[in-house]
Specification:
Layout (H helix, E strand, L loop, with lengths): L2 E6 L6 H11 L4 E7 L1 H8 L7 H9 L6 E5 L5 H7 L4 E5 L14 E5 L7 H9 L2
Parallel strand pairs: 1-2, 1-4, 2-3, 4-5
The structure holds [cytidine-5'-phosphate] glycerylphosphoric acid ester.
The site of [cytidine-5'-phosphate] glycerylphosphoric acid ester (C2G) has 18 residues, from strand 1, helix 1 and strand 4.
Length: 130
């Protein structure tokens, strides 16, 4: 059985998130998703997510293409997560291109094109107009 691992905040779920998870699943049989903790998200984006980590985790866990979820506490722990879940391949969107190449010694690493024209930041800006 081939295991795929991917990571993200997945705040205010949108079609770009769904598409990358579906495409990631196509690389194997089991898809494991690391959900950024609220603290990790704050350190990356300097704002709190709209949905807290337990809700983001439960939303992603409810998707048909996702087999397992966990909370990602630190970007630096990727190697540990890859080993813990026995991942064969790490899949990320290409906004992270090259950033996780160091893990190529543990598993395959691939970056997929992002879905154009949508992001959580844009959605929050749109919703604020209502
Ligand atoms: N994504 C996408 N298309 C978009 C928006 C996002 O393909 N329009 C992808 C991103 O490239 C990423 C995943 O969806 O692979 C999750 O995106 P975010 O929630 O923005 O995750 P991020 O905060 O970048 O966290 O350890 C890595 C980080 O935790 C990634």
């Amino acid at each position: 059985m081939k295991t795929v691992i991917t990571f993200g905040t997945f705040d205010v779920l949108h079609i770009g998130h769904i598409k990358i998870l579906q495409r990631a699943k196509e690389f194997g049989d089991r898809l494991v998703v690391g959900i950024s903790s609220d603290a990790l998200n704050f350190s990356k984006k300097q704002r709190n997510p709209v949905y807290p980590e337990q809700e983001r985790r439960d939303i992603i866990a409810a998707l048909g293409c996702v087999d397992e979820v966990f909370i990602e506490e630190s970007l630096e722990l990727k190697g540990e997560y890859i080993k813990k879940f026995n991942a064969d391949i790490l899949v990320m969107g290409n906004d992270w291109e090259g950033r996780f190449d160091e893990y190529k010694s543990l598993c395959a690493v691939t970056y997929l094109p992002r879905t154009e024209g949508i992001s959580t930041t844009q959605l929050i800006a749109e919703i604020k107009k209502y």
